[in-house]
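S1.2 Input.
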Amino acid sequence: MAAVAVVTLVIPQFLDRAGLSIYVLIALATLVTTGLTLLMGFAGQVSLGQGAFYAIGAYTVGLLTVNAGLPPLLALLAAPIVAAAIAAVIGAPLLRLRGHYLAFATLAFQLIVLVWLAESKGLTRGDIGLGGIPSVLPTLSASVDLDTPTGYAYLAWAGAAVGLLIAHNLIASRPGRALRALAGSELAAAASGVPVSRYKLQIFALAAAYAGFAGGVYAFFLTFISPASFTILISIQFVVMAVVGGMGSIWGAPLGAISITLLVEFLRTAATRPGSSPHAPAVLSYGAYALVLILVVLFLPGGVFPALRGAAARRFAARGG
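S1.3 Output.
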């Protein structure tokens, strides 16, 4: 783990501005995917609306700093709290649903959020977008100039590292074992004394908090946000990342985030050549996600990280034998 941390810190020194932007997006996707893995992989609750909480975190930061004049650091701290609070409110009725009903309900919630953001022109400036968001990095250090893409890379990966550590410790704890029981069978978990409804709501709020914090950093990094930044496609991206990395493994989240973010960037570059249709990136993305999911389900049903870990274990056993 120490080696991974060192590599993560060194990589930004060798990237240009475009590379640093992708590096930041990978870190933010890792954080959102970690929360989604907890929710779907360990608690068994399907969500297609994590993009909504990503947007809520971003707009919390934007509205508090631009409209209310709140210090950026306080706005960033408020982003996961607001996202988790909204998740707790809507989760109470939504989590009574199961399977694809819950998935469609979370998808509908994101559509509602996007419509509200677009129509609330007096508050969010609608489709025009909310700009002029200040940087949060100068408030973190008065002596060191952190207000650079490299500084945001370190901030984003610090958030991802904390999120992964919290998730790892949660899964290793007694509530984590209860979550795994809940994913296997809610009835059996309830019969064993697990407070099913409470745990489902808490993990739903925690996953939303992860997405909210990531959205807050995203808003500070770009200094401009609009509803177009948080389409349904981004929620699908997060789900694909979780599936590719491995739904039953917290450490699969970074692998899924890296692979899918790089794929998205490749498709964006390929689809924005002269003469291409403006809808080409979205069409290519949906097709690529479908193909990736089919391949993973057929050949790596547990995800990339469990497959790599299993291959390493077999190789080690063979050498030992």
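S1.4 Remarks. Residues 2-231 form one domain.
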